[in-house]
Amino acid sequence: MSGQQIMDPSAISYMARRGVAPQWRGFLRALVETLDTHLDAAGRDALLRAVGGRMAQLAAIPACGTLAELETRINDVLAAADWGYAQISLDAQAKAMFIAHHAAPAVSTYHDAQGAWVGAVLEGLYAGWLATQPGAEGGVSVKVQPGGGGAITLRYGK
Question: Superkingdom of the source (predicted)?
Answer without folding.
Answer: Bacteria
